[in-house]
Amino acid sequence: MTTTPIIFDTDPGVDDAQAIALILADPAIEVVGMTTTYGNVPVETATSNALLLTELAGQTVPVAQGAARPLSKTPNPFPTFVHGVNGLGDIDLPSPKTQAVDQTAAQFLVEKTKERPGELTLVAVGPLGNLATALQIDPNIVDRVKQVVIMGGSVKQGGNVTPVAEANIYSDPHAAQRVFNAGWPVVMVGLDVTHKTHLSPDRMARIQAAQGELGRVLGESYGFYADFYRKALGIDGCCPHDSCAVAWLKKPELFKTVRGHLNVVTEGLAQGQTVFAPEEATFAEPRWSQTPLIDVCMDIDGDAVSQWIEDTLTT
Ligand SMILES: [Ca+2]
After folding, report:
1. Hey, which residues are catalytic here?
2. Using CA atoms, how far apart are residues 311 and 313, in angstroms rounded to an integer?
3. Is 267 helix (H, G, I), strand (E, B) or coil?
4. Ligand 1 center to residue 274 CA distance, Å?
5. What is the CATH number of domain 4-314?
6. Side by side, which strands form the sheet with 255-264?
7. How much distance in Å is there from the Cα of 124 to the middle of ligand 1?
8. Contact, 8 vs 15, CB < 8 A?
9. CA separation for the pair 114, 140 (Å, rounded)
10. Helix, coil or strand: residue 145
């Protein structure tokens, strides 16, 4: 079997937990490590959750702790009304028995890509400070990474923390602008596809039943998270945002991507907005079309992706 080696950059987070369960369940994905960031929760909580979820999955994966705050903007309040104070819906959780490695997330990204040049895909599903810092300490990392898959941003869907900004990008727009435009191969998996993907209570019940103690954490935290989505989007279930980035790795045929230029608004009222200029489009004002080309997911077969999530976590 060909396996896809990845480093998973994460701020768990209920939907992060679902995605972590997926990457650890899929034998065709090799999880070389996880790097943590603040975002849904403080970074110490993110690290603790990443370690605990790995233990509950019965696996050993190095976890490197990273960014505790944005590169330059004032931190936003943590979204406790979405993920709970503990990031996993405020359910009872044991403490992890394992510890993070003695290396920062950015150092870990630099070192692992040196050990395996050209092989690793970075899947980043939180604010992008760790990747931005790795670029800062070693700009040559762009030539050693196979691909960067980013859950974040929005082109036509509008935002989820402001009318125009998606949460991960809004949390650190300066980092996002650097990461999107560093010149490495980037795929953006944003709200244009994650809002079209709904994980229903029925599917989660079957996942919970199949996953033991990890299933309890996934199922109970889902309950808290789905309450938010019922109020926010009027759907019965949740958007498994971060799992969509994993789905893109495994099932790209379920997505429609468009190639173009992506810029992040870093300051002002529209801070965190991702502005997309498709390659084919010509504009009188060329300033939006000067960055490297990336791929942006614009459509998805959401039902098929939800089915894939369930299948992966129940077989
Ligand atoms: Ca996340």
Report:
1. 11, 241
2. 6
3. coil
4. 17
5. 3.90.245.10
6. 63-65, 29-36, 4-10, 120-124, 145-151, 186-189, 294-300, 255-264, 274-278
7. 8
8. no
9. 10
10. strand
DSSP code of 199?
A: B
Residue 270, amino acid: A
Per domain, the residue ranges of the chain are 4-314
Cα 137 to ligand 1 centroid, rounded to whole Å: 24
Class of residue 76 by CB neighbours under 10 A (exposed 0-12, middle 13-18, buried 19+): middle
DSSP count for the chain of H helices, then E strands: 12, 9
Q: Which amino acid is at 79?
A: P
Per-residue pLDDT of the chain (315 residues; tens, 9 = 90+): 789 999 999 999 999 999 999 999 999 999 999 999 999 999 999 999 999 999 999 999 999 999 999 999 999 999 999 999 999 999 999 999 999 999 999 999 999 999 999 999 999 999 999 999 999 999 999 999 999 999 999 999 999 999 999 999 999 999 999 999 999 999 999 999 999 999 999 999 999 999 999 999 999 999 999 989 998 889 999 999 999 999 999 999 999 999 999 999 999 999 999 999 999 999 999 899 999 999 999 999 999 999 999 999 999
Ligand 1 mean position to 115 CA, how many Å? 26
